[in-house]
Structure formats: C-alpha cells, structure tokens
Specification:
By secondary structure, this protein is α+β, with helices and mostly antiparallel strands. 40% of the residues lie in helices and 16% in strands. Strands 1-2-3-7-6-5-4 form a seven-stranded antiparallel sheet, sandwiched between helices.
Amino acid sequence: MTEQIETVGQTEGTEKVGQSGQTEGADQAEQIEQIEQAEGAEQSARVGQTAGTTEPPVETGQPAEAVETEQRAEAVEPVTDTDAPPRDRRRVLRALARWTAAVLVCGGLGTGTAYGIAAMERSDVPGLATESDGRWDYPRLSLPALPEGSPRPFTDGNQHEIHHADLRELLLPAPAGATEDKKLNGGWVSNAQYVSEYAKDHRPDLEQALTDYAVRHIAARGWTMPDGTTSRVYLLRFDSAGTAEEFTGIELGVGLSPDVALAAAPGDAELDEGWDVEGPAVGKSAISVYTEAKPIGPVQTRQAYIQAGDTVALIFQSRKGEALSVPFHQTVVLQNQLLG
C-alpha cells in the first residue's frame, strides 16, 4: 500500500511540477525575448543618434592635450544603474529568470512530496508508524536501588558476581494489557512450585538438586496476553556465580538442548536459530534460547535460560498454534538487562 500511494503521490506531483515548470518557463522566455527586443531597438536608436551627430569643434584656444585628457576623464566616469550596458542587463535578467525557474521547480517538487505524504496512511510514513511490529508494551525499566556500599554484580569489586538487590525487584514486570497470574505475582515461590514447571519424571532429581546447590531464593511472575500467550519467569539465586553455573550446566543440562523437559514442552527442544542477539544486549550473561523440535503439538512453547552471576532465570512462553518469536526474544532481552 505504501509503494502504491507513494507512486501515485510522486506521479501526480511530478505531472503538476512538469506542467507548472513548462508554463512558467514559457512565460519567462517570452518576457526575456520582449525585453531583449526592446533593448535592441533602444540600442539601435542610440547608434543612429550618435552617427547623425557631429562633435563640436575644439576651440583653438584650448590645447589638444587638454582636450584629450578631458575626454579620457569623461570615459572613466562611473556608470550608474540607469546607464548600464544592455548586455549586462540581459545577463542579470537571465540569471533572475534561472533563479525564478529553479524556485518554481523546487516549490513544485515540494508540493508533490507533501501531497505524497499527506495521501499516505500515518502508519506508512517512516517515523510515524503506529501499528505494532509484534513487540509488547513493557513499562520503562529501571534497576533497583542497592544497599549502601554494595556493588553491582559485574563490577571489579564483586568477585562472586552477587546480586545484592532484592530478587523480586529484578523480575521483569508484565507488559500492558496482560492479565497477571495470581499465584505468580512477582513474589517468593517454593522449590516445589519451580519444579512443577518440569515434566514429572524430572521433578525428583531437580528437587534434590535445589537442596544440594543450596538455592537461596526463588521469585516468579506469570501473565497471559490477550492473544492467549502465557508467560512464566523464574529467578533462582545461589551463593555465587560458580554455583549458578554448575547448576545450569550439570543439573539442567543447558547446551545444544536442555536435559530436562518442561511440562509445557515434553518433547525435544532445539536451539532457536532466529536468536541472533549479541554484544551489549547480552553483556556477561550466558543465554540459551530454545524452541520445540518438530513435530510440534497444538500448543508451541519457547524457552530460555539466563545465567547472570549468581542468578539463573527460566523464561518460557506458550501459545496455541504458534508462540511468536518477537515478543519472546524481547522478553528475554529485557529480563537480561535487569540482571546485567
């Protein structure tokens, strides 16, 4: 639609400019021709007057040298605007005509451009788009305040990369339009609640692993969007980055495919090839993003793990038919920013 409207706007603008430029150019050419004809007649009249007039004789009492000097002095007198040679006038007029034509053409092009934009839908104009590109409208994020004297997790003075902020305040808030899960409302949850998100045959081992690795706290938030997408975010805090890394690699088996399956995605999971976020958006975190391997059932689930210092995040989204990648990747990036 954008290309069609832009083409129509530009074509109509170009036709208007062409017609306007041709009309104005013809008028300017006609005016210049009339002025040149008038000046040519005036110049011919002056030549005729000069040819038919005889210079008065030099008085015998005045030296020839003095007369010659006087004539030279008259020859170098400044020429006023009214006495300007016709050729110079024509140059000025031609320059003026060119500038006038340029202004008219530019003005016409500007009108064509304005018409093209005015005829376009607001959502089609670059910089004015209002239609959603699939991302969710999250609140403005800000890092929570730290206890006095406590460093951020990835600063030089924080050897074990500890998050000293309240873990609940590091949870990503729900986006606009979401219905929050009353059970997962951003507060503390039990080990059993976290383990319940996994397939039944993995739960006993995970429950024991949480005890062995001495998980300190677990916080969680869940919500459902109007399109039916359900989201769950869990944050697990351990005593150090080393412990969190071991739990992620050994107990969860995060790598090419996690060793433990979610209850929402009991089949195999594979790396999400659409995930290409790197650099500052990742920071010092280790992020693994997965999607279900085919065949996919009636509900698709996407999942991701983030290991950022002493904290491990589990993020997953499920939706009937297809779980869209754009809001999922957005959710992962934003949660990682809060942990970075």
